[in-house]
Specification:
The complex is a heterodimer of chains A (255) and B (253).
Chain A (H helix, E strand, L loop, with lengths): L1 H5 L1 H17 L2 H22 L10 H30 L2 H6 L7 H27 L8 H28 L3 H6 L1 H6 L15 H9 L1 H14 L6 H27 L1
Helix pairs in contact in A: 2-6, 3-4, 3-6, 4-6, 4-7, 4-11, 6-7, 7-11, 7-12, 11-12
Chain B lengths: L3 E12 L2 E12 L3 E5 L6 H8 L7 E6 L2 E2 L4 H7 E4 L11 H11 L5 H11 L15 H13 L5 E5 L7 H16 L3 E6 L2 H7 L2 E6 L2 E6 L1 H6 L15 H14 L1
Parallel strand pairs in B: 3-8, 3-9, 6-7, 7-8
Antiparallel strand pairs in B: 1-2, 1-4, 4-5, 9-10
Classes of the chains: A mainly alpha (255), B alpha/beta (253).
């Protein structure tokens, strides 16, 4: 047992390297998790942006948090897909019958999700800088933004794990992500919620994405974040814990 | 050190209402090839999963390399390798990357060297840097078995190793299995093909309706039948022999 525990980190490294290879060899993944969000950003800034009244003069600044969340939501659909493919092929059984830290077969995917989403977020921020995104945020604010995005990623990753572990078809493994990718559109990510009609506005103002978007936007603008950051953290941690419990339950049943 | 690589006593397992194993007993000698024969759904894979620590039995005991599978799963995993029913290879990685990955997970000193040696041994050198998704069924199975040999485990489990393979690839797998046993590895294989068990196994056990109903060497199993009458008939080639002869000719041209 001791030798197995000792190798946890090196086994995680092998698993991470494996899934990162999967990502970099899949043009489809790269297009969906980085090119698509960038296209959205271009579309909203240069096509719709002129007609959208946000009360700010820099629409890229306003838009960026929502775009990052869409990128992450698209990214975790692939986490679910990779997990599903592992369960389907015999590779999970091979790993589990080897003298390795068994949990790395699952946790490797969680780590990959964090690393790969961090890369796509970084690429999108660089493109946003070219498009005129400017931030007065200090190091602490940036760290807070990174922390919120990491928590958001983890929360969605565990939802993805439930889907990937319990799906019976490839389509099923990815389908759960569509409503999540859609959530930023019914939030304050693209337009202020004040402009929405009654029930939609009520939904938009009370769903998790709005608080996450508002918190990140305020941090990047160097403005006081108020309650939004606590609401955002509560949502992310709450979703993460609930999804984790369910994912582990499915996992234990499957292996 | 006992001479048995695997010992199974009174193994039982149910899935909900389905009583798959109703008390399975057998032993496998070291460095031998043991074939577990049975029709589809007889519970062969369930036996393999219990012996490879993927599944827990309801009752009964099983030891692999003298370690109890339920009490000492980590030690069991150190001693074994599993080649499951579906090729357990990573399709997106190359053959070489697959082998290096397994060597690193087994914490071997020189993963690249281990991979090179196995690629050589299994005739996969030319395909080594191609993605596995481009491999034929036979090549995939060869890589699969090669991955199971990384780290030289003492006991190898092959769950229906030739299901879905063409006759040529099948012969290749057979050759590999014979070589393994000749080098001292214990091979536990399941199959639904009678000729496969006949070709390979030192000992054959038949799993039927949750129990082992016969367990003997091929020669002794044959004695269970009345002696054959001697008749003179013209020997007709089997379709397999014809198939292999024709391909053989073509390749020589």
């Amino acid at each position: 047992m001791e030798t197995v525990k000792k190798h946890f980190l090196s086994d995680m490294g092998v698993m991470l390297e494996r899934s990162m290879r999967h990502i970099f060899r899949s043009l489809d993944t790269i297009i969906t998790v980085t090119i698509m969000p960038i296209m959205f950003m271009l579309l909203f800034v240069y096509v719709f942006g002129g007609a959208i009244q946000t009360g700010t003069d820099n629409y890229v600044n306003y838009l960026l948090p929502g775009i990052l969340l869409i990128a992450i939501a698209s990214g975790i659909a692939y986490t679910s897909y990779r997990l599903f493919m592992d369960m389907q092929s015999g590779i999970f059984e091979r790993f589990h019958s080897m003298p390795i830290a068994r949990s790395t077969a699952l946790w490797g995917h969680v780590l990959t999700s964090l690393v790969s989403n961090a890369i796509s977020v970084l690429v999108i921020i660089l493109v946003a800088l070219l498009m005129g995104f400017r931030s007065s945020a200090g190091v602490l604010s940036w760290l807070a933004v990174a922390g919120i995005l990491a928590l958001f990623t983890l929360a969605l990753t565990w939802i993805a794990a439930i889907a990937g572990l319990s799906a019976t078809s490839v389509d099923g493994a990815g389908a759960f992500a569509y409503p999540i990718i859609f959530l930023p559109f019914i939030s304050s990510a693209f337009v202020p919620t004040e402009s929405m009609s009654g029930p939609v506005r009520a939904f938009a103002e009370n769903q998790p994405v709005t608080s996450v978007v508002e918190a990140i936007r305020a941090l990047l603008a160097g403005q006081p974040v108020g309650n939004d950051i606590w609401i955002a953290l509560a949502w992310c941690i709450g979703i993460m814990l609930v999804a984790y419990v369910f994912a582990m339950r499915v996992y234990k049943k499957r292996v | 050190m006992q001479n048995q690589a695997i010992q199974v006593k009174g193994l039982q397992k149910s899935y909900k209402k389905l009583h798959v194993l109703k008390g399975v007993d057998f032993e496998v000698e070291r460095s031998s090839i043991f074939a577990l024969l049975g029709s589809n759904g007889a519970g062969k894979t369930t036996v393999v999963k219990i012996l490879t620590t993927l599944l827990k039995q309801d009752s009964g005991t099983a030891t692999v390399n003298n370690f109890d599978v339920a009490a000492k799963p980590d030690e069991v995993r150190q001693s074994i390798s599993l080649t499951g029913q579906f090729a357990a290879v990573d399709e997106i990685l190359t053959g070489r990357e697959n082998l290096i990955m397994i060597a690193r997970l087994r914490h071997l000193k020189d993963p690249r060297q281990v991979a090179d040696d196995l690629l050589n041994r299994f005739g996969l050198v030319d395909a080594a840097d191609r993605r596995v998704s481009t491999y034929s069924g036979g090549m995939r199975r060869r890589l699969d078995i090669a991955m199971s040999l990384v780290g030289k485990p003492k006991i190898i489990f092959l769950d229906e190793p030739t299901t879905g393979l063409d006759p040529e690839a099948r012969l290749e797998v057979w050759k590999t299995v014979k070589e393994l046993a000749a080098n001292g590895t214990t091979v536990f294989l399941t199959t639904q093909y009678l000729d496969e068990a006949e070709q390979l196994a030192d000992r054959i056990a038949i799993l039927h309706e949750g129990r082992i109903i016969a367990n003997d060497t091929l020669a002794d199993l044959k004695k269970l039948f009345p002696p054959a009458k001697v008749e003179y008939i013209e020997k007709k080639p089997s379709l397999e022999e014809i198939f292999l002869a024709i391909i053989g000719k073509k390749e020589k041209k």
